[in-house]
Amino acid sequence: MKSQHVSTDPEAIREAVRNAYGKAAAGGGCCSGGGAAEEASLFARALGYAGADLAVLPEGANLGLSCGNPTALAELRPGETVVDLGSGGGFDVFVAGRKVGPEGRAIGVDMTPDMVSKARRNAQSYAERNGFANVEFRLGEIEHLPLADSSVDVVISNCVINLSPDKPQVWREIARVLRPGGRVAVSDIVLLKPLPAELQENEALLTGCVAGASLASEVEAMAAAAGLTGITLTPKELQCGDSDPFA
Questions:
Q1: 28-54 residue pLDDT tens
Q2: Exposed, middle or buried: residue 232 (CB in 10 Å: 0-12, 13-18, 19+)?
Q3: DSSP 3-state of 163
Q4: Helices within 91-157 (DSSP H only)
Q5: Under a CB-based contact definition with an 8 Å cutoff, are residues 25 and 118 in contact?
């Protein structure tokens, strides 16, 4: 792994993440250890994704960037509107779209133009395979969501919030766009103890889902400060691959 360091400036962090995931859009992954379709599918199954959902995904939508299964945690229902923060190639959006059905809506937000372009191309295949078009992808930062107040029923995110340089703002945005009674399901890497400072500034660890992770207690505090209630954190061990596509 390279020892290149990244600035603590928020814009520098965003640029490092954008560059890394722009490259991942053309192939590669995070904790799955690679972007090969078969490997990414096996990794998704290990996280609990149903084979039926994976079988109808557009080719290349699953980049192996997951660290959990927020669509299952959210218990999505037909007719709901769901937004995925950091939607990448559209993996969780397409899974969510099938769960909310033709009367529902699944929206992906990502700040990497190459990812949004990839997801939009995948959306055509999704519509052809499922017989309905209920997904869309928007370019934007998760700290400033391109969504109206109280406009979604469910917010999901999969191994993305830890990449943000302003996590409290992300949680405030989540609370802003949720309708009354809405819910949040986030899968992310969290820490049980702080990382050493030199690791927090390591660019490969930052873009590889680790260095920007918060303590579990901090995640709970940020969500509560944003006004969310009924917060439950469920720890789950994740075995990541040995290779680092961002190194």
A1: 444 334 446 788 888 888 888 988 888
A2: exposed
A3: helix
A4: 91-100, 113-130
A5: yes
Classify residue 155 by its DSSP letter: E
* Residue 42: Cβ-neighbour burial (10 angstroms; 0-12, 13-18, 19+): middle
Question: How deeply is 229 buried, as exposed, middle or buried, from its count of CB atoms within 10 A (0-12, 13-18, 19+)?
Answer: exposed
What is d(CA 25, CA 50) in angstroms, rounded to the nearest whole number?
23
Amino acid identity of 116? Answer: V
Count of CB atoms within 10 A of residue 197's CB?
7
What tens digit of pLDDT does each residue of 64-105 get? Answer: 888 889 999 999 999 999 999 999 999 999 999 999 999 999
Residue type, position 224, single letter: A
What is the value of pTM for the model shown? 0.83
